[in-house]
Amino acid sequence: MRKTIGIGVAGAGAIGIRGALSHLSLQDVKDYGVRLAAICDPVPGRAKAAAEKFGVTAYYESYEELLQDPNVDIVTLCTPIGLHYKQGVQAIEAGKHVHFNKTMTTRVEEADDIIRRAAENNIRVVASPGMMLRPENRKKRKLILEGELGQLGWAIAGTARGTVAFHFEEEFRTGENILTSVNPEWYFKKPGGGPMYDITSYMLHELTGILGPVQRVTALSGQAVPEVFYQGKRIAKEMDDSTILMLDFGSCLYAVVYTTIAGEITGWSPNIYGTHGALIGSKFGDTELKDPALTQPHVKGEHAHMREAHVFADIMQLVDWVRDGTPSIVTAEHARHVVDIIESGYRAAETGQTQQLCTTFEPLPLEQL
Ligand SMILES: NC(=O)c1ccc[n+]([C@@H]2O[C@H](COP(=O)([O-])OP(=O)(O)OC[C@H]3O[C@@H](n4cnc5c(N)ncnc54)[C@H](O)[C@@H]3O)[C@@H](O)[C@H]2O)c1
User: Fold this and answer.
1) Has UniProt tagged this entry with the keyword Nucleotide-binding (predicted)?
2) Which among 92, 125, 126, 259 could bridge 318 via Cys, Cβ 3.0 to 4.6 Å?
3) pTM listed for this prediction
């Protein structure tokens, strides 16, 4: 008989609700033997409100209590990025498998420690965003490996969300009750705030998932707008809002990855240019690679029409891995490499010196595409 898997959700903010609770409370997930075992949030009353709304068995105001709950097999960290390392270590020590909402950690040595501790304690780790779970991204890598683009020249990807406080417009920030007035201040603070860890993480996972690991990085970075206002309250920004990375993949293949305050030119998916053809977003020439009928694993029925389905898909990777021992293609080593690019990029900008990356990962081989 299929083992029931209990999920503990840490953080009842935007992604806790939209990515975890909204999806995991649906009937098909229950039928699959997955239970919302517990939720925690330190803001008084928030975990209780979320538990009542989504039918979660237990609620707590501290993460430590959630970790002590024997019904929790997997923890999904829906907390600010700066907390992920410490909370990941605590989960591993408590014997819980961990899903990290991007980004896994803020520093390579923290990611190393998570990977080492997980291996020592027989714990599974999946870190979002699992961009290569998207069928169109696997098609892109396949086209490249089969030589359809010719010799690769360069790529570009990025967003212009450096200052426009788009998180302020989320339905979880604009209301007045405990679930709709979640303060997004951490998005601007050290460590773990800023658009690089929050958004560029998507582009870096996709780009490296398709092209493979990066060897060197150089960058320019700064803060163009020093403050933002949330509900009339000033937030002094600590993280840069404008960063342009240049990545060296070897063999003269370079990429530009930007996060700026204006002028988004690519969309979230990269443009990748070769001597015989180019991938422009989700298109190869006139061919659209994205097929609405082909989704990430588990993203079926209602899930396919809901927001943050990719977060749900990543959590379900961990469920299947814990239950059947099927390892996910979404690896912690890939997530660590992205952390390395971001951390080394900031160091390159600060020192003016191109940085050699100290991590790598195995990109998907042709037979898995
Ligand atoms: N908002 C998005 O669009 C989005 C999308 C995908 C992934 N994410 C990722 O999800 C994570 C959370 O982002 P968010 O937008 O949901 O943030 P948020 O600010 O909306 O919610 C964070 C919640 O965590 C709670 N929290 C703070 N400290 C805690 C602790 N010690 N233990 C448990 N809970 C604690 C806060 O009270 C808050 O309710 C980040 O890693 C982010 O990058 C966000």
Assistant:
1) no
2) 126
3) 0.97
